[in-house]
Amino acid sequence: MKNKLLIFFEIIFLFLLFNACRKNIGNADWDTDIITPLIKTELTINNLLVDSLLHSNADSSLVLVYNNTLYNLSIDSLVSFPDSITHQYFHLPLTITANPGQQVLNITDNKNLNLGDAQLTRAIIKSGKIVLKIRNTIQEKMLCTYKIPCADINGILLEVTELIPAASINAPYEFTKIIDISGYNINLKGPNNTSYNKLTSVTQAWVDPNGNQVTVTNNDSLLFDAQFKDVIIDYAKGYFGSNSVASGIKYSEFSLFNKIISGQINLESIKLKLHISNGFGVDARFVFNSIKSINTRTNTTVSLASSLIGSYININRANETYNVANPVIPSVFEYNLSNSNIKQLIENLPDKIEYSLDIATNPLGNISSGNDFVFNSAGFKANLDMEIPLSLIATNLTLADTLNFNLNPQQGYQINNGKLTLIADNGFPFSSQLQIYLVDANNTISDSLLGTENIIFPAYINSLNQVTQIKQTKLSVLITSEKLIKMYDAKKVIILSRFNTTNAYTRIYNNYSLKLKLSGDFNMTLNNE
User: Fold this and answer.
1) Residue 152 CB neighbours (<10 A)
2) Structural contact between residues 137 and 231, judged by C-beta atoms closer than 8 angstroms
3) Could you give the C-alpha distances from 354 to 247, 254, 345, 350, 386, in angstroms and in order?
4) Partner of 259 for a Cys bridge, out of 65, 194, 302, 399, CB 3.0 to 4.6 A?
């Protein structure tokens, strides 16, 4: 519909522009009548629904396939790294003289990371940083090394060495370095390879080997501070604890009927199943407290009536394949909802799905002996998978669309009035009523473009409600000078299409189409000055 209206006004504009190039012949006003074809187009069911959602059966009848994601539990819901890593402070209680190259700090720290109930033995970082800050109050350059010997990438350990400038008499020198740890593999088993959540770090410092002898007093210090920042885990292994996650009331957008603003639809049948995919290497137990379809246009809510609601369901952990290309085989649970009141839920024409879900991980405890795992690429997902054969009864099913609009007549040229003739060859077995509303700069509807008897009649059908022959309808629309003024003032148009079928279920086939031809008969004045 957008293309039809835009093409119409673009052709008028080109016609005016062409005539503007004519040589002036005196100062005269010319009136002329012009009949010209404006549009020739063909509309199919793809103009109402997204093509990728439609599938053809062997008999060419169409099926609508739609997937709606209700819930997605990601890796950071189970485990995330804390901020603090290292806080090492070098301070002497007495005054010493340190020579060039003399080591003043060598500390190995085995820090227990606070990961809640999780007991991690390994983690691979997808992306993230370590922010290393070094504060030097010693009045000589210090050669400082910070390393995490339990972290490597391709066998290369994480290690940073920097020459920190000397402090001035009045102020310490403060150094900051951002260390990219993306891709690093971190062993959290500790120095004896028997623990968990344990991160080993080493901080070392020497007086600049190429520097000078320096006096270090009890007022001097060297501070190392390291913190994780924006860490996203790609993979983790260990035991992730027994946790409960309550979603609360959540909403999922349901875009299938976004273009529909009113009317009713009666679907012959619907296939719907709840598809749960557990990509975590943990056992889980879940329960849906409620699932509702909400039509915010009509403020109508329909609750799912099914034995699924309130039932606790166990789902096994995923399997780790150790195949880089396909590292996880999820555990899948499916629940058939076709025997519930799902027709009422979908015929409510929802734009939102409301739900409440509770999940418990590892409900039986550490039965994997610390071999739980999670991949960033796999999580816990709950989807509604739906198949709707396009066999329906539609009553005043109204679709709307809005587009920008701007009609500026060329100076000296004016359309006085005219008539549009629309020829519709309808190959669909239902009627359609069209209307186009003009919207001004204040977002107020100023007028309608079409008349009141603007019905496109349905095609001829047989006893099986299948189209046997197209039906041609002609619509004529007068455009007066008053309506033209409102068209000039319009900034947008709202296009409404209202569909009605017979009282029997109407099946849609992939060869159905609506062919439109629009021609214009205009009276114009050409003012030559």
Assistant:
1) 16
2) no
3) 11, 10, 11, 10, 17
4) 399
